[in-house]
Amino acid sequence: ALSGGVTTDKVFDMVEKIRKNSSIPMVFMTYANVVFSYGIERFCKRAAEVGMDGMILPDVPFEEKEEFASVAEKYGLDLISLIAPTSHERISMIAKEAEGFVYCVSSLGVTGMRSQITTDIGAMVELVKAQKDIPCAVGFGISTPEQAAKMCQSADGAIVGSAIVKLCEKYGKDCVPYVAEYVKSMVEACK
User: Fold this and answer.
1) How far apart are CA 28 and CA 146, in angstroms?
2) SS3 for 138?
3) How far apart are CA 58 and CA 103, in angstroms?
4) What's the confidence (pLDDT) of residue 76?
5) What is the rounded CA–CA span in Å between residue 89 and residue 94?
6) Model-level pTM?
7) How many Cα atoms within 13 Å fall on the side-chain side of residue 124?
8) What is the pLDDT of residue 2?
9) pLDDT value of position 107
10) Which of 6, 42, 50, 91 matches a 20 to 30 Å C-alpha distance to 79?
11) In contact, 128 and 102? CB cutoff 8 Å
12) Which of 7, 69, 25, 75 is nearest to 45 (CA)?
């Protein structure tokens, strides 16, 4: 992205164009440093102006979220909470304050495609829903329609990123029909 000339302002401009034709909820998933270096207030204000609904900052732990959460709230943005398979007793604490939806991390390690997901997603979702009636979406490693269907048996949705990035990498400027076909197959699997 950086070698291609992407900047935070260009991403905001892209969102502004998308919002002219779509009202589908959108959240940014980025690192805290992007928001921090842009200026938390400036970033949240601009995100709200262009029509974003929230943001996911996976490198900000629950205990350190206030610096971002208070500003996001001021501009009507949800700061999406993540829970991991190792969260255990923290899940109910995180769920109580969750906004928008809860991002359930399906497996340990870094994001990317996996051949198998062994985490008990149903148990994670149950712990969240016991605290708050909020949608739960599962991400990290979901790359096939079969995996998405399995996750959607326990959760409200599946989050797919790396597989789409790989399609973009493979097909470059011609990726749109391939991404559309892939996303359609994932949506069908979750129905």
Assistant:
1) 26
2) strand
3) 10
4) 98
5) 9
6) 0.86
7) 27
8) 80
9) 65
10) 6
11) yes
12) 75
Number of Cβ within a 10 Å radius of residue 92 = 15
Closest CA to 145 of 106, 177, 190: 190
Name the residue with tokens 């979220």. 65
| H helix or E strand, kind and range, residue 137 | strand 136-139
* CA 69/CA 74 separation, integer angstroms: 9
The CB-based long-range contact list for 179-185 (8 Å cut-off, 24+ gap) reads 185/145
Measured CA to CA, the distance from residue 68 to residue 83 in angstroms comes to 18
Q: Which of 186, 175, 111 is nearest to 150 (CA)?
A: 186
Q: Phi/psi class of residue 160: alpha, beta or left (left: φ > 0; alpha: ψ in -120 to 50)?
A: beta
Tokens of 39: 């200026």
Token output for 35: 């928001």
